[in-house]
Design a protein that fits this description.
Layout: H1 8-23, H2 44-51, E1 56-61, E2 64-65, E3 69-70, H3 77-86, E4 91-95, H4 105-115, E5 119-122, H5 129-136, E6 141-145, H6 151-163, E7 167-172, H7 175-179, E8 188-192, H8 204-209, E9 218-222, H9 228-237, E10 241-244, H10 246-249, H11 254-263
Parallel strand pairs: 1-4, 1-10, 4-5, 5-6, 6-7, 7-8, 8-9, 9-10
Antiparallel strand pairs: 2-3
Helix pairs in contact: 3-4
Length: about 260
């Protein structure tokens, strides 16, 4: 990782992730069940997005963030996971980072089991052991934030994920990230509309980068989707799926918000 190009907030989070992993080198508490065998070539997360291409909502569970603070007591994760499955979400996203986002791989396993939806583990990957933790927890996909890696390291993590049956969703935010994807095949590419330096959101980021995204990848818009109008704008531009977290977990009625998004 070239730390001179990584936003300060990411450096802080990844430093803490390395510390945590060094303190708990072995597998953490075993999740509720072992994940069933799957391959990257026949992946339920990708299949779910393909089945609803152009309208696929990846509904997220997160128990807090640096901007929102801790949401424990306000978010009922298992109830929310079941509601997502019942009201139109194509797939589930669970933020598992513990210190800044208050998550865990155990949370992912429990939410995946409660919902039955294919799930992506959202972590700040700094060690291959995190891929194994995601796999054991039942994830079918894993987030790789391009800003954290040089091109070779990004490709290596992606290959290790695929060997475990996980499909990488590689997340970009700018042209420097985009250049790291050149010449490789990607199943899922996401554009994060949130600037990780300032945490400000601009949907124009997705619109600007979309024409340059790899043609064979499913294209995922992430962050800042507040309602049906935003989703319609991004879908009309050509995005295939939409990862939505804050608008759901902070909604007074998450089910009504999900129905609005899935029915738009």
């Amino acid at each position: 990782m070239n730390e001179t190009t990584v936003p300060d907030v990411l450096l802080k989070i990844t430093a803490q992730r390395r510390k945590r992993i060094s303190e708990a080198r072995e597998t953490p508490a075993r999740p509720r069940r072992e994940a069933i065998t799957q391959s990257a070539a026949n992946n339920p997360f990708v299949a779910a997005l393909e089945a609803q291409r152009g309208r696929a909502v990846i509904a997220e569970i997160k128990m807090g963030s640096p901007r929102l603070g801790e949401l424990t007591g306000r978010v009922e994760p298992l109830r929310l996971a079941r509601a997502y499955a019942e009201h139109g979400a194509a797939a589930l996203s669970v933020v598992v980072e513990p210190d800044f986002f208050y998550g865990s791989y155990e949370l992912l396993g429990a939410c995946h089991e409660a919902s039955g939806l294919p799930a992506i583990a959202k972590d700040f990957i700094v060690d291959p052991v995190q891929l194994r933790w995601a796999r054991r927890a039942g994830a079918s996909a894993v987030l790789l934030i391009a800003a954290l890696y040089g091109r070779a390291e990004l490709l290596a993590y992606a290959q290790q994920a695929r060997q475990l049956g996980l499909v990488p969703l590689v997340e970009i935010h700018d042209l420097a990230d985009l250049m790291k994807l050149d010449g490789a095949l990607w199943e899922l590419v996401g554009v994060n509309n949130r600037d990780l330096r300032t945490f400000e959101v601009e949907l124009g980021t997705s619109m600007a980068l979309l024409p340059s995204l790899p043609s064979g990848a499913l294209k995922v818009a992430e962050s800042g989707i507040a309602g049906a109008a935003d989703l319609d704008l991004l879908r009309g531009a050509g995005f295939d799926a939409f990862l939505i977290g804050e608008a759901l977990v902070t909604a007074g009625d998450p089910v009504a918000k999900l129905r609005e998004l899935c029915g738009s």
